[in-house]
What does this fold into?
Amino acid sequence: MITPLYSVELFPPKTAEGMAKLKLEISQLNTLNPAYFSVTYGAGGSTREGTLDTVNWLRELNIDTAPHLACIGSTREQVRELLTHYQTLGIKRLVALRGDMPSGMGAGERGNFHYANELVQFVRTEFSDAFSIEVAAYPEYHPQSSNPARDFENFKRKVDAGADGAITQYFYNADAYFAFVTNCQRSGINIPIIPGIMPITNYTQLARFSDTCGAEIPRWIRRQLEGFGDDVESIRAFGHEVVLNLCQQLIAGGAPGLHFYTMNQSAPIVRLWTELHLPTK
Ligand code: FAD
It folds into this structure.
């Protein structure tokens, strides 16, 4: 029986004011005792400084931290340097991704990696087992995949290259997650597949994200959220019930943990965590 992993994800703020606010949110989230805090990284190194500042701050507080590393647009040397730095900070876990090419970046700036499986392979070759590696999984399929079977084969490449676990893109349909896990079991993939959980607090922002990342907002949820218009309180109350219910279904169905996309807001996560009776400090 593996211990379930409950983790939280942050993104690096762009301003000093954002960083000051994030520190307050981190102190609230840290009372929950998450297994680790992950910190996103912009492909092509576009958030490199912000990611490093956030990771450094978490490590100063001695918090288990998993930096994301999106390899597209980076050279082997840049990745090696970053990972060597992470080793000196005592980091033991990474989230290894391809990322998306920042707009305006030309084909000549793609760097040395094409897909995330190449990054996983690189980390294993150069750093052996120094890092536990999480990769991304897409129960509703990656938006660029030409067909589901090929997308699943590509997911398996990352596992075969040495991934220790996977975190899913967010979804609101638990069946998509359970079907993906069944597919993994049938294909001999035994790593934990941790559902990524996106709280619902802002419909416009969620709809925009979902369009680009290929996550479906089921019609009944979308219609309800649209119906609330600018009534933020009703959006939050309904969104909380939907996500709480989703998490309960996932836990009851045997999900090996939950990874919360916090959007740098602690309050919705603290409320979910408490009502789900997840372990805390
Ligand atoms: P891959 O696994 O490489 O897959 C990308 C696409 O290429 C898929 O369509 C796949 O089917 C196809 N493919 C994969 N391998 C091959 C191959 N060998 N040959 C042919 N086709 C292939 N983005 C960021 O920029 N920064 C972040 O910090 C970040 N964090 C994320 C965290 C999680 C948990 C998730 C789910 C996503 C995150 N993303 C992040 C978004 C992610 O970078 C994008 O979804 C990106 O488009 C794909 O990254 P990937 O690692 O899944 O790519």
